[in-house]
Design a protein that fits this description.
- Its cofactor is FAD.
- It comes from Tumebacillus lacus.
- InterPro entries: FAD/NAD-bd_sf, FAD/NAD-binding_dom, NADH-Q_oxidoreductase.
- It holds the Pfam family Pyr_redox_2.
- Keywords: FAD, Flavoprotein, Oxidoreductase.
- The protein starts with a strand and ends with a helix.
- A 5-stranded parallel sheet has the order 5-2-1-9-21, covered by helices on one side. Strands 11-18-12-13-14 form a 5-stranded parallel sheet.
- Helix 7 (about 200-215) links the parallel strand 13 and strand 14 (about 215-220).
- The protein has helices at about 10-20, 45, 60, 115, 125-145, 160-180, 200-215, 255-260, 305-325, 360-390, and strands spanning about 5, 30, 35, 55-60, 70, 75-80, 85, 90-95, 95-100, 105, 120, 150-155, 185-190, 215-220, 225-230, 230-235, 240, 245-250, 250-255, 270, 285, 290-295, 340, 350, 355-360.
- By secondary structure, the protein is α/β, with parallel strands linked by helices.
- The chain has 2 domains: about 5-30 and about 75-105 and about 250-335, FAD/NAD(P)-binding domain; about 115-250, FAD/NAD(P)-binding domain, CATH 3.50.50.60.
- The protein has 10 helices and 25 strands.
- Helix 1 (about 10-20) runs parallel beside helix 9 (about 305-325).
- The protein binds flavin-adenine dinucleotide.
Length: about 400
């Protein structure tokens, strides 16, 4: 029987595994952790909404057939020339590989960013951000160092803006707990581009700006960070801001293992794939999600999103099955569902299937998309298991 290996159990890899399981096709799945985390929602627990445990699901609760093998391990190298993946648990060989290792941070060469900024990219990093901010408020009680109360979020894309919305809602609770006056707390978003949320139209961007400003977020667009030192950012304007919390959400690139393995990559290190999501270099390797350089019908590379990763995961699974059955391959076309940005628990902005939405309805739709995703992964069983948890505030 053909050996199918999936590397990475994020949105792309796990969807692929679920589809293969539905078809009764055994596979091996390797992932850093024995759980899958909801990356698109990590700003919520980072900013104090709900308990952290609610943002992950054990892989064994999703993939329940014993014919497949789950390996908790780290991929350390790729050898597509030999049909092998190198891992900290030894080599894994395959006939078909689905590469779904997600992304790595893009620092745009800003000196000191990698060394001194925190990232919001995994369940662990979200927890670190949360614990760090709370620790800063606690320490302020002892030393009255006001740089502990200044939080800088670099980047005003979806991740940075959603994080600011959550942090802003958390601040009053922290101020009350640690007896900090509101005027001492600063939450600053720095963005080099002229606007926040570039994927949304101007009306929605303005609405988001209004909401966040009202919640106390200082939005500074057209403000490039040129250097980061320990507890300090330097701006292009020459201004220097001291802050003990610096979080970078400014961009992503593909996992560096891909370029190192000899795949043809774009400037963001993503492997080039054809319309069936096969690597153009190795046709038995499917590359999906943030790792894939897929050019859409408009000739532009598809931006890295959870919805693209999920849809690619399903198509890659179908195509592996089709190759084995000698059937023609499915062509990948993104079914763009829209973009929703939450700005805290009860308000958001976005467009869904071409319809603009803002306020409570956008927040409710975002909430609904969580349930839809759980349904796709594990049907009613998983929805029931997680639903109570996802809707409760901490
Ligand atoms: C806070 C935040 C909010 C977001 N909001 C949205 C949104 O609203 N809508 C949207 O569409 N997108 C959103 N995104 C983007 C979206 O999360 C990503 O595009 C998506 O997760 C990519 O899916 P993927 O399967 O390619 O990778 P991931 O989901 O990142 O999965 C990669 C998996 O591979 C594992 N892995 C990585 N390296 C290794 C290794 N060496 N060995 C073993 N395992 C490894 C990881 O642990 C992970 O399980 C958001 C991202 C963030 C951070």
């Amino acid at each position: 029987m053909a050996k199918i290996l999936i590397a990475g159990a994020g949105y792309g890899g796990l969807t692929c595994a679920v589809e293969l399981e539905k078809a009764g096709q055994p596979f091996t799945l390797i992932n850093k952790h024995d759980y899958h985390y909801f990356t698109t929602l990590l700003h919520e627990p980072a900013g104090g909404r709900n308990k952290f445990e609610e943002y992950k699901v054990n892989l064994h609760d999703v993939l329940r057939k014993e014919s497949s093998k789950l390996v908790k391990g780290v991929v350390t190298g790729l050898s597509p020339q030999e049909n092998k993946v190198l891992t900290d648990k030894g080599e894994l060989s395959y006939d078909y590989l689905i590469l779904a290792l997600g992304n790595a941070p893009e620092y745009f060469g800003i000196p000191g960013m990698a060394e001194h900024a925190m990232l919001l990219r995994s369940w662990d990093t979200a927890r670190k951000i949360h614990e760090h901010i709370e620790h800063m408020f606690r320490m302020y009680r002892d030393d009255r160092d006001e740089t502990r109360l200044r939080i800088i979020v670099g980047g005003a894309g979806l991740t940075g803006i959603e994080l600011c919305g959550e942090l802003a809602e958390w601040m009053p609770e922290l101020m009350a707990t640690y007896h900090v006056p509101a005027e001492k707390v600063q939450l600053i978003n720095l963005e080099a581009a002229p606007t926040i949320l570039p994927m949304l139209d101007e009306g929605l961007r303005k609405a988001a700006e209004e909401v966040l400003t009202k919640k106390g977020v200082q939005l500074r667009t057209g403000t490039a960070i040129v250097k980061v030192n320990e507890n300090q950012v330097e701006l292009k304007t020459g201004e220097v801001i001291d802050a003990r919390t610096i979080i970078w959400t400014g961009g992503v690139r593909a996992n560096p293992l891909i370029a190192a393995a000899g795949f043809e990559v774009d400037p963001r290190g993503r492997a080039k794939v054809n319309e069936h999501l096969q690597s153009v270099d190795f046709s038995n390797v499917f590359v999906i999600g943030d790792s894939a350089w897929f050019t859409g019908p408009d000739g532009k590379p598809l931006p890295p999103t959870g919805q693209a990763a999920t849809q690619m995961g399903a198509v890659a699974a179908h195509n592996v099955l089709r190759i084995m059955k000698r059937e023609p391959l499915e062509t990948f076309t993104l079914n763009y569902m829209g973009t929703l940005a939450s700005l805290g628990a009860e308000v958001g902005v976005g467009n869904v299937k071409g319809m603009k939405t803002k306020g409570v309805s956008a927040a409710l739709m975002k909430e609904g998309s969580k349930l839809k995703y759980l349904w796709q992964l594990g049907g009613l069983r998983l929805v029931n298991k997680k639903r109570g948890q996802l809707s409760s505030r901490r």
